[in-house]
Amino acid sequence: MLKIRASKKAGLPPGTMVYVGKEQAGEAAVSMIQYSEQEAEEVSVDVRNLQITVPENKDRVTWIQVTGVHDLALVENLGRIFQLHPLVTEDIVHTLQRPKVEDYGDYIFVTLRAMHPQDEQICLILGPGYVISFQENPSPLFDSARERILRGKGRIRRLGAGYLCYALMDMVVDSHYHVMERINEQLEALQESALEDYDEETIHGVHALKGEVFRLRKSVWPLREMIGRIQRSDSGLVSREVSVFFRDVLDHAAQLTDTVENFREMLASIQDTQLSSLSNKMNDVMRVLTVIATIFIPMTFLAGVYGMNFKYMPELEWRAAYPVFWIIVIIMGLGMVWWFKKKKWL
């Protein structure tokens, strides 16, 4: 589980870069692809001597992929090269951000959360002719986009930087489906176990899933508002042709939101089922105990009467008193058991 250390930022002025994610042992890496509709090439980047030039040709797009936001110097250098606002570089290294979109006029800053193959924050910067993506750790999340660009598949090389930003956002949003499918399978298993038996394993499973669904909800809930802001942006970075494709991400976001809400209702239903099962078991136990106590009440009464130390009790002098007492007790007990079974109380 991610260890939250956002308290390290307490008291610092706005724009101060403080990395609050997991400790990273490896070095940060930067890769760059420049492409147009006709061609695409990978450009080597020296992280220690960072020099990046974005072509002035409007038909040519530059995609800079940064892996490892724990390297504050690298993020600061990129911020200097692309003239990013200090609040943007601060949010990039603050890996506990809420998903959001901020329009700075010359560029759009997007923060998302990917759920597969690993839980990490993804930041995107869409500018004129370029897209910068920031990942916490190396992962194959954007490999398909990279392959499509290098092989010239689909529209990605024709529709510019706005479409590349859409494609990357779509991959991040779609990464939630892997987690959704796993949670759905676990919920189905929990529903069956909740109906069959009430045990601690089911309780622990429900609480664990509640935590996962809560994290999913935090990641999914702001997506519709974010995509709407991108579509309504006046920056001109997203053309009308590309804006249509963001509707697809919007549909996925709406579907994910509905699924998360369904998961919450299913978890609440499982908990209600568990409580109902526990209540029914307690009622069964109390019914059995009540029946047993009711059977022994008249027997206890007879034992109490003949256990009193009175001098004159004619029955005590009778030779057959003891066996008659037991015959009466047994008949009363059997009669009450028969009556309870007839009433279906046993």
From TrEMBL:
Superkingdom of this protein's organism: Bacteria
One Gene Ontology term of the molecular function aspect: magnesium ion binding
Coiled coil: none
UniProt keyword annotation of NADP present: no
Keyword Hydrolase: no
Homology family: Belongs to the CorA metal ion transporter (MIT) (TC 1.A.35) family.
Name of this chain's protein: Magnesium transport protein CorA
Species of provenance: Desulfatibacillum alkenivorans DSM 16219
Gene name of this polypeptide: corA
